[in-house]
Design a protein that fits this description.
Elements: H1 3-9, E1 27-30, E2 33-39, H2 59-81, E3 87-98, H3 106-121, E4 128-134, E5 143-151
Parallel strand pairs: 3-4
Antiparallel strand pairs: 1-2, 2-5, 3-5
Length: 153
């Protein structure tokens, strides 16, 4: 399957990779496993979506922010391996939602990324996952998601 063509068909745009906000690499490959560092909701202007879900950010907006995290994940991956078509399997996503204490819909927020990955990769994009609520995220992100991919040899 041509995943790059599917991304275009879905009208999605992979952004330029964000610069790391600390002392780490956005993507590390060990054997044929790509570990993508946590990515925030990267906006078109290069800034990040910020806020607290359940207070100043609603569920639908947070789901869109999770999709933006997914596109940033693909950007970090593509920057390292050259083509999204080298993906063999999305293994796992771990999503963090910056939310108020009473907010309990973290899985629905992270579905924004999970559903997009399934739309792009089909069964190859169905993955294991964790969705966690936290009281803050770096730089005030609403959502941060990390990923693990198996890459074709």
């Amino acid at each position: 399957m041509d995943f790059e063509a599917k991304i275009a068909e879905l009208g999605l745009l992979i952004p330029k990779p964000a610069k790391p906000a600390g002392s780490y690499k956005p993507c590390v490959i060990v054997d044929n496993i790509a570990y993508i560092s946590g990515q925030g909701p990267l906006l078109e202007d290069g800034s990040f979506a910020k806020g607290k879900v359940g207070a100043d950010v609603d569920l639908e907006t947070a789901q869109n922010h999770a999709r933006l995290c997914g596109l940033a994940i693909l950007s970090a991956l593509k920057n390292e391996i050259g083509s999204i078509n080298k993906v063999d399997q999305l293994i796992k996503l771990t999503g963090f939602v910056n939310c108020i204490e009473s907010f309990t819909q973290q899985p629905l927020v992270i579905n924004g990324c999970s559903n997009m990955m399934k739309d792009i990769f089909g069964d190859t994009g169905v993955h294991a996952r964790a969705a966690v609520g936290v009281n803050s995220l770096p730089l005030g992100f609403t959502v941060e998601i990390e990923a693990i991919f198996k890459i074709k040899s």
